[in-house]
Design goal:
The chain contains 11 helices and 4 strands. It has 265 residues and is mainly alpha-helical. It has one domain: 2-methylcitrate dehydratase PrpD, CATH 1.10.4100.10. The strands form 2 sheets. A two-stranded antiparallel ribbon has the order 1-4.
Length: 265
């Protein structure tokens, strides 16, 4: 694995919330509120309601489904459902410099897994800021394929990083969890968007599912090839990967503050 990626994993694992400037934390809280609002609005979509009914019939408990009147579910199912709901309205935030809608693909998993492990708000906030940063930086280093949509791509790797941080994995295990997640990266097409194909929203929701899954795979002892991220982003789902600028201003330029908020669908 490139040393830049190893350093990025260490940054995610070892940066304390106190090291994140207060204005960055405040902006991240605004991202949280905006994202939860979009999830709640999207929860009323008919296909989202139908999926909740089907998946919750066999799901467990432990995490909140953000929809009026719905019981809890197991954390991975809740993360998937909440992520799909949030994606369904095309109102989630995005990064100004990278094709990357990190919050909607990271926050649902953080809320669900965080509730299950009884984490704190500070744990959630740190995971969001650091996981968002990791995914956006990987996205900037990747050359995207012309018709590839960003759902389930580097934001999914950012979600794995955020989940690792939430579960307090060390730097080596965080690196391994992100590399394991590289085997789960998706290939949705932008043609879904112009065709009105709502399956595109499932690809976004899967990032939250992976946030709960990848750290457990690492903790269970699963391994990944050393260059899993480079291979996936350069030749499988991406069309090139250059880590040379991956660490530019790391710890002083916070990607979550370089976002935009969508005012209309």
């Amino acid at each position: 694995m490139a040393q830049q990626i190893e350093r990025l994993a260490r940054f995610v694992a070892e940066t304390r919330l106190e090291q994140v400037p207060k204005d960055v934390q405040q902006h991240a809280k605004l991202v949280v509120l905006d994202t939860i609002g979009v999830i709640l609005a999207g929860a009323s979509r008919p296909e989202v309601r139908g999926l909740r009914e089907r998946l919750n019939a066999t799901a467990g408990t432990g995490a909140t489904i953000f929809a009026p009147g719905w019981p809890t579910s197991d954390p991975r199912t809740a993360a998937l459902l909440n992520g799909i709901a949030g994606r369904s309205l095309e109102l989630g935030e995005g990064n100004r410099y990278v094709s990357y809608q990190g919050a909607m693909q990271i926050l649902p998993g953080l809320l669900s897994v965080g509730e299950w492990v009884r984490g704190t708000g500070r744990d959630m906030l740190a995971g969001l800021i650091l996981g968002y940063d990791a995914g956006a930086r990987l996205g900037a280093a990747m050359t995207t394929r012309p018709i590839a949509h960003q759902n389930g791509q580097t934001a999914l790797l950012g979600a794995a990083a955020a989940g690792s941080r939430l579960r307090a994995l060390n730097a080596a295990d965080t690196s391994r969890a992100i590399r394991i997640a590289a085997t789960l990266v998706l290939t949705p097409s932008y043609h879904n968007a112009v065709a009105g194909a709502t399956a595109l929203n499932v690809a976004g929701g899967m990032s939250g599912f992976v946030l709960g899954l990848a750290p457990d795979l690492a903790l269970a002892g699963f391994t990944a090839q050393d260059d899993a991220i480079e291979e996936a982003l350069s030749g499988l789902v991406g069309d090139g990967f250059d880590p040379a600028n991956l660490l530019d201003q790391l710890g002083s330029r916070w990607e979550i503050t370089r976002n935009w908020f969508r005012l209309r669908a």
